[in-house]
Design a protein that fits this description.
Rossmann fold; 2 domains; seven-stranded mixed beta sheet; six-stranded parallel beta sheet; 29% helix
């Protein structure tokens, strides 16, 4: 089969022939779409906290078909998705809704679980609460807007460039700003932050008493050191979220949340945003879109 192989940090992807994966207790999925997550870009640049052994075929989220033709979406336990075939743990395989495309399937699981679990399990999101979403036009951001709206919250979206504002409003954000234009007096109950860096620290100044910042990722740089005094003095909090660890240690919690998400998707309350679909041979260009922040939603490879 063909796969996009990464041999070294900062190296190019090589489209090569590799042996077909062996089932070895897993199921084989013929990959029709593979989602690119920012973690893939961090691994390529050597910045991921738990670096895998190289060379590697990246790709932790796919959609495709089982041998009997059943349409599915799946998580791959961290690698193997940028290929024509992938071996996946049976527990990580989910039926793809009938009306969903393969590209949408490869854009759903990681992004929506990452948005939904913190907003339903880690914070109390009362109706009418204000949720500020950083990187709101990205994969997790577009999911977080929709999830928060489905939970009857008021959403404020923050993005890096003006051309992304309309998408955020279309998805349900009542207000949308480029970062530098966020009103100084904006106050919120929850901040969803996949960015990290300076934005993470600034988010605490926007929280109302008893508000919470949810730290999801560090696409904009590692989190600064945080003293408990900064939280205690303002009656605010921070919650950290890492889906991979939660899947390993609390699979039932993740499974229950996934069932709830699928039900919402079926009602039309949620839809994965596919920003670009590119052939597997264009994996370099796909990663460039993600790393340059020029993409919206999920960038998907089509083997």
């Amino acid at each position: 089969m063909r796969a996009a192989l990464l041999r070294e940090v900062d190296g190019p992807f090589e489209l090569v022939d590799v042996p077909d994966p062996e089932a070895d207790g897993k199921v084989i999925v013929r990959v029709r779409a593979a989602g690119i997550n920012f973690a893939d870009a961090l691994i390529r640049r050597g910045r991921y906290p738990q670096m895998p052994e190289l060379p590697i075929v990246l790709g932790s989220e796919i959609a495709g078909e089982l041998e009997d033709g059943t349409r599915v979406m799946a998580m791959t336990s961290g690698s193997g998705g940028y290929a024509e075939l992938a071996a996946v743990d049976r527990a990580q395989v989910v039926p793809l809704p009938e009306r969903a495309s393969f590209a949408e399937g490869a854009s759903f699981l990681l992004t929506f679980l990452t948005a939904y679990l913190p907003l339903t399990r880690q914070v109390r999101l009362r109706p009418g609460a204000t949720v500020l979403v950083h990187a709101a036009a990205g994969g997790v951001g577009t999911a977080a807007i929709q999830v928060a709206r489905a939970l009857d919250a008021r959403v404020v979206a923050a993005v890096g460039s003006a051309e992304k504002l309309d998408l955020c409003r279309e998805l349900g954000a009542e207000e949308a700003y480029v970062y530098d234009d966020i009103p100084d007096d904006l106050r919120c109950d929850v901040v969803v932050d996949p960015v990290g860096g300076p934005l993470f620290e600034q988010s605490f100044g926007r929280l109302r008493p008893l508000g919470t910042t949810i730290a999801i990722g560090f696409a904009g740089g590692l989190w600064p050191e945080l003293s408990p005094a900064a939280l205690v003095g303002r009656n605010v909090g921070v919650q950290g979220f890492y889906l991979g660890r939660l899947i390993r240690h609390e699979p039932q919690v993740v499974g229950d949340a996934l069932a709830e998400l699928l039900a919402l998707w079926e009602t039309g309350a949620l839809r994965p945003v596919v920003g670009a679909e590119l052939p597997l041979a264009d994996v370099e260009r796909a990663h460039e879109l993600v790393e340059s922040r020029r993409s919206v939603g999920k960038v998907v490879l089509v083997p």
